[in-house]
Every structure is written in structure tokens, then in C-alpha cells.
Amino acid sequence: MLEVFILALALSMDAFAVAVGLGSKGNIRGLGLKAGLFFGIFQALMPFLGYLGGRGVLGWVDAYAHWIAFGLLALIGAKMIYEGLQEGIEEDIKAVTNKMMLILAIATSIDAMAAGFSLTLLDMNAYLACLMIGATTFILSWAGVLIGHRSGAGLSSRAEIFGGTVLILIGFKILLF
Predict the structure, then answer these.
(1) pLDDT tens per residue across span 130-162
(2) Interacting residues of 162 by C-beta distance below 8 A, sequence separation 6+
(3) Do residues 41 and 98 make contact, with C-beta atoms less than 8 angstroms apart?
């Protein structure tokens, strides 16, 4: 279960980084709950879809599954690190509407769908893993809004870099062990 928790933390860093940026905008009344719900639901749903897709093709790519999982996690991790070094979309957001939250939730959870493929290779209950990913993202997104409100957006890039690094390390673990 520790492995799932570490995966959940790493996958939730994108949502956390965006939530910090949103919280730094000013008025946060209800924004923490909204961010937690939007990001948490999508971060739970997308890895599950990736898991189902991975199970569907696992028989065809069984001999290469570890390499595929490593490649996906390494690419996702590298993308997160790159985005952490760039200016975020949070800078351009003026009003936080439900439509905007939906777009942000989808954008931050697409990577989790690819990472869901790796759940087929780990000895765990995928339902529980996706629930744990969603709950972790909910909590960190809510906290991210509050932290962003208090400290500004500077923390968001470091969170993405950390999350990307952890995903790459999980990929190496799958590949080597």
C-alpha cells in the first residue's frame, strides 16, 4: 500500500500545483472544496480508465509491459518537471468557473490515465488504488488552495518537479524489480 500512496502523492502534484496557483488569486470562498472535488474525482477516474485499458492489452504486450510502464511514467514525470520549470496556466486564469475547473481537472488528470496502466503491473486492488489516488488528490487540492492563498504561487512549480521526479523513480522501480 505504501507504493500506492507514493503513486497517489506523485499523481496529485499537478492538481496541487494548479490549486496553489488558484488559491493565490485572492477570493477562495468555497474554492478549496470545489478544487478538491473536481480534481479528486478526475484523478480517481482517469487511472481507473488507464488500468482497464492496460488490462485489455496486457496479454498482447506482456513481455514488454514493464518497459511500457517505465516509458509512460518517465514521460509523464519528465513532462511534469518541464512544466514545473515553466510558467503555469494559473497565471492566465481570471475567474474560476465550473467550466474552467472541469478543463483544469481533465488537463491535470490525463497523465494519471497513462499512469493507470502501471496499476496492472503492481500487486494491488485497482479499485482501492484509484480511490486512494482520488482521496489524496482531494485533500492536497483543498490544502493547495489554502496554501496558495497564504503563500502565493511560488510553491506550485516545486510541487510539479517533485511529483515528476517521484513518477520517474516509480518507473525505474517497475522496470528493475
Answers:
(1) 999 999 999 999 999 999 888 865 676 777 788
(2) 10, 13
(3) no
Instruction: Give the separation between CA 161 and CA 52, rounded to whole angstroms.
Output: 28
Q: Tell me the pTM.
A: 0.78
CB atoms within 10 A of CB 99: 9
At 145, list the grid cell.
488552495
**Residue among 105, 107, 143, 173 at smallest CA distance from 23:** 143
Residue with grid cell 483543498, as numbered in its chain: 142
Provide φ and ψ at 121, rounded to 5°: -95, -15
Q: Could you give phi then psi for residue 138, rounded to 5 degrees?
A: -55, -50
Integer Cα distance of 154 and 147 in angstroms: 10
Please calculate the CA angle 16-20-26 and round it to the nearest 5 degrees: 150
CA count, 13 A, side-chain hemisphere, 115? 36
Residue type, position 148, single letter: G
- Distance (Å, whole) CA 39 – CA 138: 6
The type of residue at 37 is: L
